[in-house]
Write a structure and sequence with these properties.
The structure is a homodimer. By secondary structure, the first copy, chain A, is α/β, with parallel strands linked by helices. Chain A has helices spanning 13-20, 24-32, 39-52, 58-65, 79-83, 86-101, 116-122, 137-145, 168-181, 205-219, 238-249, 263-275, 293-297, 309-324; strands at residues 70-74, 105-109, 128-131, 150-153, 163-166, 187-191, 229-233, 257-260, 285-287, 304-306, 333-336, 339-341. In chain A, the strands form three sheets. A six-stranded parallel β-sheet of chain A has the order 2-1-3-4-5-11. A four-stranded parallel β-sheet of chain A has the order 7-6-8-9, sandwiched between helices. Chain A binds a DNA duplex through residues 10, 12-14, 22-29, 32, 36-38, 41, 56-57, 59-66.
DNA sequence: CCGGTTTAGAAAACCAGTTTACCATGACCA
DNA sequence: TGGTCATGGTAAACTGGTTTTCTAAACCGG
């Protein structure tokens, strides 16, 4: 007898029905709607359940109710990528707070077998939130086909897809104007810039921001092809920020300011500059995007765009729960205010 | 007609069976074990499924398989508490990486109706990981009753419960010795110290660490009742760290060193000291525990105990998956090495 | 050409709840 | 005394898959 409990079966609602002398229905009501049965019956059933340690099986219950009591957060890449970014943690915190309030859990959905689509197919959630996804039509099509409600954060606006964003183009415009007004003309831009190829099928928030940068540059007679504008693709990690900086250090003509699309990249860049004894902002200015908490404490503190991640998460989750419960939706496209935060990392050189 | 699709029912395996001319069984095999049916049948079925956009319902599938394809992370308190602590994020990252590798999702389980027990009852997961929970017997009893595999991180060791820890007592001893060797005798200790009341029913990791502190203190002829030792209860948040500092500022005899049980608390304290123009470490030393990434970047950098959160998460998750799959368990109590990290925040005053 | 094995597929059981539809019983009332 | 209604409870249907068991046909060697 290798396992003395091998015969032991899980206790089910049937057992409680048998033990208490009532029906399955009665047991179900005892747990879910006591008013449907007499107080005596309810007490008896709960008593029996208590004694044998029974509680309705969550899996069966969810199946029967056709609900998971959980919403998902789709990780577009490897978990390392998202979790190392404090901005995303802020977003997650906001989402989590709403989940908690609504008695739901929050399911983090990493790519399955390296595939986001596969993960979405199998996602056991009542709805989900994406962050930073461009127009990955395969994913969205699948979600629509599965009739799974979803909300995008930092996705591409102006579609039928419910979204939460700041006005990214305007924010990008504002910060680039600030940079230009500070006298910078040799400017490096770091972001996921493969989108630059004018392939309109691959929209993304980075491109939206780029449009804002361009608008500002044009007011100063510059554009992305100007010889003093350096563009470099760079994912949102601290390492990529370091890498970006090292590239720029070796550039023939070093830029006077690095405009990044993420604070974490900006901080990575600053760390690398420091290691090479390039002073920020005296030798080179750096600006970010997001305003993560660290940006205020960091030395030098970071000039950046404040977008409230927690608030975005909260709003997205609230919208998602509205969609799930088919409540009347007031507004499917939520825009959160942003603020330009001027701090130490941008120096006026004019 | 308010909803033109109101009649529309979800497509099920039955529909595909009917449309393809095969049985439910065949359809199931087509998706899960194509070798059980002919290539032709499989192709036909998948073709039909593709056309109508069918994919097995995850909820029903999980129910049938009696598996959630997900493990849980139990948030012992409000989500704000955990998510604001980078150490816990490190742990989560480690857990998440293993989930991703195993094709599972990671479910964050906040308290349900303010109750952790209730949350555990309803948790739709195959197993779960707790962090920083003391001997909350109600929760553990419930888990055992539900036969839900689980692993504790930073829990109380020396029980039958699978656990992942560093040697907390030894680590606490080591860092306190370092503090004492640096000449400090007026020492404040910040942690969840309600456990000090000798109520052995309420064990916790904080108490384990306290034992290590006491051991070191005794070697210098001190103990927790010595007039120069100040104890103050303090949860693991940056605000509590600030609060701790403000308390100490008003103490009759200010300590020369603050020993905290968490870097986040240490950083909070340093921020508050700074605001009151108390220099760290010149006016007062501070040491932490965890060695979160910020501790290295912070000014002053933090003397602390390095415990690899990500590694702990990874090990715990691996252990949990072993438990779930009933694999032979090599070791149910994993101890991870720690290191004392000497940096700027502790000053030698002897 | 016969008996045994393999293969392809189908029927039915199973997972563990919730919910609908219905049936007693007794009270109340005309 | 018969009709209506409220109460308390039950049987059966339903959620949508997977898996076991079984059968018919194909295959195969002697």
């Amino acid at each position: 007898m290798p396992d003395e409990h091998s015969k032991e079966k899980r206790i089910t609602i049937k057992d409680i029905a048998r033990l208490s002398g009532y029906s399955k229905t009665a047991v179900s009501f005892a747990f879910n709607d006591p008013s449907r049965i007499s107080a005596k019956a309810c007490a008896t059933i709960l008593q029996v359940a208590q004694e044998v340690g029974y509680y309705p099986n969550p899996l069966a219950r969810n199946f029967s109710l056709q609900s998971h009591q959980s919403i998902g957060f789709l990780l577009p890449q490897d978990i390392n990528y998202s979790f190392r970014n404090p901005y995303i943690m802020e977003v997650l915190l906001g989402i989590g707070a709403v989940c908690q309030k609504n008695g739901n859990t929050l399911t983090l959905i990493p790519p399955l077998h390296e595939s986001v689509v596969e993960a979405v197919r199998c996602a056991a959630v009542d709805g989900l939130i994406t962050q930073g996804m461009g127009t990955e039509m395969e994913v969205f099509d699948l979600l629509l086909k599965r009739k799974l409600p979803f909300v995008t954060i930092d996705g591409v606006p102006s579609t039928q897809i419910p979204s939460v964003n700041v006005n990214d183009e305007q924010a990008a415009y504002d910060i680039m104007r600030l940079v230009l007004a500070a006298g910078h003309r040799r400017i490096a831009i770091g972001g996921l810039l493969e989108v630059i190829e004018e392939d309109s099928a691959s929209q993304s928030i980075q491109r939206t921001r780029l449009a804002g940068y361009v608008k500002a540059l044009q007011e100063y007679g510059l554009n992305l092809s100007s010889p003093t504008i350096i563009m470099h693709t760079c994912a949102c990690t601290i390492e990529e920020g370091r890498h970006l900086a090292s590239i720029l250090l070796n550039a023939k003509q070093r830029p006077t300011c690095v405009v990044t699309m993420s604070d974490i990249v900006a901080i990575g860049a600053i760390l690398a500059f420091k290691e090479h004894h390039i002073a920020v902002p005296d030798d080179i200015s750096v600006v970010g995007f997001d305003n993560i908490p660290e940006s205020a404490y960091h030395r030098p503190s970071l000039t950046t765009v404040d977008q409230p991640g927690e608030e975005k998460g909260r709003q997205a989750a609230q919208l998602l729960f509205s969609l799930i419960s088919k409540k009347e939706i007031v507004e499917r496209h939520i825009q959160i205010p942003y603020r330009i935060i001027e701090r130490e990392s941008l120096k006026n050189i004019s």
